[in-house]
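User: Last request for today: this protein with fe (iii) ion, please.
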Amino acid sequence: MSTTTHATAAGSGRNATATFARKERGTAAVDTARVDAVARDALGALHEVIRKHRLTYAEYDALKAWLIRVGADGEWPLFLDVFVEHVVEEVVNADRRGAVGTIEGPYYVPGAPEFASEGTLPMRAGEPGAPLTFQGSVTDLDGIPIEGALVELWHADDAGFYSQFAPGIPEWNLRGAIRTGADGRYTFHTIQPAPYQIPTDGATGALIASAGWHAWRPAHLHLKVSAPERLPVTTQLYFEGGEHVGDDVAQAVKPELILRPVDNRVTYDFPLDPA
Ligand code: DHB
Ligand code: FE
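Assistant: Here's the final one, the structure of the complex with fe (iii) ion:
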């Protein structure tokens, strides 16, 4: 689409960096012993890589130049969420019994338009893409419906771009939230998103190209589901048989997260762990 062909790594990186700066997911306590243990092991792991591969000074300088470029383009949120976040999510959510989580990625924005029980995501007139009705319920671990749960949904458009991070897309396009009623149910009307490609023109894309990797994530819906006295879950849902479901560059696909729509309609339930 002409309006989104000028998306650049630096543009989406800058927006993702600004979004991250506004975000609060808790403050890490500065415990000297823990900083010592984690930083020592992280640097030690890097030292081992240098020894193992007998790094040259030319390679060391290339690394410095690349790190500087990642920062200059604001690409740290993109790089980290693609290559690191999946392990953090695995560790943090290891003891959950309810709905399965996965990475949040860099493109969540709070405060999207909210609907009661059923709604159509904000979209442009003639928004490209196959229609999709996505519905289900929010329950406790025994399947009892939760009233007043908030189901937030955001996803890329049919060209793989996110509103507020690529130019020329209305602010809340394909972003919305549903507050459940007494039956715990939600129904979103939206369109099928396309696979997402990590921007190829920035530092992250340069690493991917230089290493001969691919830059694709499978088409996905992003969700956050929260309710009073429940652990919120952040997750993504994928589409059976979709391109790159088996080789997501961000390694965020799990078998429990694969949707099988029938006639453009699919149901998915969120049992929430107690807080
Ligand atoms: C990135 C983009 C996504 O849409 C996502 O879900 C995860 C990561 C990224 O560009 O870093
Ligand atoms: Fe995404």
